[in-house]
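User: Structure tokens for this complex, please. No commentary.
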Amino acid sequence: MSARSNVPIEGSFQLIGGKFDKAGEASTSLKKKLTEMGLNVEIVRRASIATFEAEINVIIYAAAGWLRYYITDDTLRIVIEDMGPGIENIELAMQEGYSTAPEWARAMGWGAGMGLPNMKKNSDKFKIDSVVGEGTTVEMIINL
Amino acid sequence: MILGKISEILEAAVVTNPGNLDKDIKWAFSTDLLSNVLFYFIPDSLLLTGLIHPQVVRAAEVANIDGIVFVQGKKPEAETIALANEKKITLLVTPFCMYTASGKLYQAGLEGFPEL
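Assistant:
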């Protein structure tokens, strides 16, 4: 990984609920950054998919949120924190095909119930904390 | 199969990146569910869809898809076209429905995404 320095790299993106015209901007910017850093395509693939799904979830469900990333020599850590309705049953939400997406989001092609499973599948470590009425925080770690 | 051949088989209008019609496509996938697009990450690939909003292009970018075919004559939104131009993704519009368009390409030898 000679393309990287020893200095940790971090950055963040603000996400606004319902703002679909910007949906995907954070994850595609991160994808570009990781590619420019010379990380291998498999890492870039997993990070891009995981962050895109997370970004879309914030936009569909929450009022607002942040996507933050931290890159060290060993890991890429992505934290998505939102001010949203929270998830009542995390176990159910983690099942492939289960979705509570509203009709308008389904009409746009979301709500396949693959978001959280796709995030977990593409992370080496996946953690989700949610408080109903307050919000949800997802932490994903990808080993470099 | 190059994008130019795909556009010919589908009797499709080329909306963006006509300069990319020599691009060789090896796999195709049809869906209206964007998370299903994100399930894959396959280079040299094509997406057939009925969704015309800009997130289709975002999802295609994340999933490394080179071309998008809009079925049933659906014309992509202006923002979708602008984003595809920026991301250098070729957009095609075919009059055929998703089933027919997919069938025509499959019959001509373009394979579906490999099973994971």
